[in-house]
Amino acid sequence: MSKTVSMHFLSLRCQILFVDDGNAPEWQFHEELKAIHPKVQVHRNEKRQGLIRSKVIGAALISSPVIVFMEPHCVVSKQWMEPLLEQLALAKDHGTLVMPILDIIPENNFNQYVPANHHIGGFDWTLTFGWKALIEQRNSSYKYPNVYPTPALSGGIFGIWRDNWERMGTYDTNMTEWGGEHIEMSLRTWRCGGRILIVPCSRMGHVFRAKNPYVVHVPEVMKNTKRAALVWLDQHLEDYYKKVPYARRIEAGDVSERLRLKESLHCQSMDWYMDNIYPELRAELKK
């Protein structure tokens, strides 16, 4: 790590904010969280806003130039932050998003820790995320542990420059609860001048749960996914409908604001994304 980058890190203001999204009293733990460290703060949404809006609310409440979004069911390893910050510092245009490797903590045994392989993230024509090929299979010249590009975010764990977060339109806040926002942001990032990198030197354990501990309304997830499709799939919207025919009947709300954002950012087409970033998705059309 260069001295210049190291000195840049020292200038960053570190804040740790937990968002209590309308939790019941027995699940709040505010005082316990604040007792961890003087930098820890807690914000409470008195009414549940959902994961997507809660992240937008939380990001607006901190002042640091870099935002690292995380989830409470994670355990970080030592020096997990520095490799992420180094890659962000190297991004002259601030257009880079960075992800750690997400190792596996089994839900039924928190004492276990299973290192994950270094796959790329992707999705199919239902806009459902999945871990795809190993980076060595995709790029025979790849040498571990170099950073590598991924076509898609796996979820909401990533680092980003604040100015880029705001310039790029944060999240679509007409999406509700949870789901679809990571696919939307992946398409928006790559097609509007940015890139997404996985940083293998940064690792954290993630509890992959069999089911969410909170209520997830599937129609809301489908609404979110359709909003992403309406804005970003261009002439390939019908390919989405072929895989998810009932989505035609879903009322997804007005997406004109997000279409204006897309136009203002001078974004590339869906065909450009498949040709240059994620050719595997085009190959699925031929199956």
UniProtKB/TrEMBL annotation:
Residue ranges of every copy of the Glycosyltransferase 2-like domain listed in the record: 13-112
One Gene Ontology cellular component annotation held by this UniProt entry: Golgi apparatus
GO molecular function, one term: polypeptide N-acetylgalactosaminyltransferase activity
GO biological process: protein O-linked glycosylation
InterPro entries: Galactosyl_T_C, Glyco_trans_2-like, Nucleotide-diphossugar_trans
Keywords: Disulfide bond, Transferase
Residues covered by the Galactosyltransferase C-terminal domain: 146-208
Stored SUPFAM superfamilies: Nucleotide-diphospho-sugar transferases (SSF53448)
Designated name of the protein: Glycosyltransferase 2-like domain-containing protein
